[in-house]
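Predicting holo structure, zinc ion bound.
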Amino acid sequence: MARSALQKCTVCAAYGLSETCGDCGGMAQAAGPMRFSPEDARADLRRKLKQVGTKEWVSNLPSPEDEEE
Ligand SMILES: [Zn+2]
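Done. Tokens:
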């Protein structure tokens, strides 16, 4: 049983509620797959680009002290 009620046809891309397309009889899969993977394969690369962890990166972070003055 599919977790999501809304199904999307893999053949004609029609939406429906059954795992068989009502339009063309093709196989339908749960619509709306996750747009972003929780396992971000490029996270390491992006951290390197932003130089996360360096003193420069830390000094650029917003801090509550900036708002008090
Ligand atoms: Zn279809």
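The chain has a mean pLDDT of 82.
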